Amino acid sequence: MKEEYTLQLAIKAAPQETLQYSIYNYSSHSGSYYPQNIAMNSPTEQSSRWSSGSHDQSQYVTLKLEKPVVACQILFGKFHRRKF
Hints:
Layout: H1 7-13, E1 21-26, E2 61-65
Antiparallel strand pairs: 1-2
Protein backbone atom coordinates (compact mmCIF):
# COMPACT_ATOMS: atom_id res chain seq x y z
CA MET A 1 0.00 0.00 0.00
CA LYS A 2 1.40 3.38 -1.02
CA GLU A 3 1.71 5.86 1.84
CA GLU A 4 -0.17 9.10 1.25
CA TYR A 5 2.00 12.21 1.16
CA THR A 6 0.70 14.57 3.82
CA LEU A 7 1.84 17.78 5.41
CA GLN A 8 2.79 15.85 8.54
CA LEU A 9 5.08 13.57 6.53
CA ALA A 10 6.65 16.55 4.77
CA ILE A 11 7.33 18.24 8.10
CA LYS A 12 8.82 15.07 9.55
CA ALA A 13 11.12 14.67 6.55
CA ALA A 14 12.23 18.32 6.51
CA PRO A 15 15.72 19.08 7.83
CA GLN A 16 16.09 20.94 11.11
CA GLU A 17 18.30 23.98 10.91
CA THR A 18 19.23 26.99 12.97
CA LEU A 19 17.49 30.11 11.72
CA GLN A 20 19.09 33.52 11.60
CA TYR A 21 16.82 36.14 13.16
CA SER A 22 16.65 39.49 14.87
CA ILE A 23 14.15 40.95 17.30
CA TYR A 24 11.69 43.00 15.25
CA ASN A 25 9.30 44.08 17.99
CA TYR A 26 8.31 43.24 21.57
CA SER A 27 5.64 44.13 24.10
CA SER A 28 7.93 45.42 26.86
CA HIS A 29 10.83 44.37 29.05
CA SER A 30 11.54 44.33 32.75
CA GLY A 31 14.83 45.69 34.09
CA SER A 32 17.81 44.35 32.16
CA TYR A 33 15.85 41.40 30.72
CA TYR A 34 15.68 42.67 27.13
CA PRO A 35 14.24 40.46 24.38
CA GLN A 36 17.64 40.41 22.63
CA ASN A 37 18.80 38.19 25.52
CA ILE A 38 16.91 35.21 24.05
CA ALA A 39 19.54 35.04 21.29
CA MET A 40 22.08 33.82 23.87
CA ASN A 41 22.34 30.05 24.00
CA SER A 42 23.10 29.88 27.73
CA PRO A 43 20.21 28.05 29.43
CA THR A 44 21.84 28.11 32.86
CA GLU A 45 22.52 31.86 32.78
CA GLN A 46 19.74 33.96 34.26
CA SER A 47 20.90 36.89 32.09
CA SER A 48 19.94 34.95 28.93
CA ARG A 49 16.22 35.43 29.45
CA TRP A 50 13.62 38.01 28.50
CA SER A 51 11.02 39.19 30.94
CA SER A 52 8.04 41.31 30.01
CA GLY A 53 7.00 44.30 32.06
CA SER A 54 3.44 42.95 32.14
CA HIS A 55 2.01 39.73 33.48
CA ASP A 56 -0.97 39.27 31.19
CA GLN A 57 -1.60 37.69 27.80
CA SER A 58 -0.24 40.70 25.89
CA GLN A 59 3.41 39.56 26.19
CA TYR A 60 5.07 38.95 22.83
CA VAL A 61 8.30 38.96 20.88
CA THR A 62 8.16 39.28 17.09
CA LEU A 63 11.11 37.78 15.22
CA LYS A 64 12.37 38.95 11.85
CA LEU A 65 13.72 35.93 9.99
CA GLU A 66 16.46 36.17 7.39
CA LYS A 67 14.30 34.39 4.80
CA PRO A 68 10.75 33.03 4.56
CA VAL A 69 10.36 29.72 6.39
CA VAL A 70 7.75 27.27 7.57
CA ALA A 71 8.61 26.77 11.23
CA CYS A 72 6.88 24.09 13.26
CA GLN A 73 8.86 24.67 16.42
CA ILE A 74 11.07 27.45 17.78
CA LEU A 75 13.25 26.78 20.79
CA PHE A 76 15.18 29.27 22.90
CA GLY A 77 17.58 28.61 25.74
CA LYS A 78 16.20 29.90 29.02
CA PHE A 79 17.16 30.05 32.64
CA HIS A 80 16.33 26.99 34.66
CA ARG A 81 17.10 25.78 38.15
CA ARG A 82 18.41 22.36 38.92
CA LYS A 83 16.41 20.39 41.43
CA PHE A 84 18.51 18.24 43.70
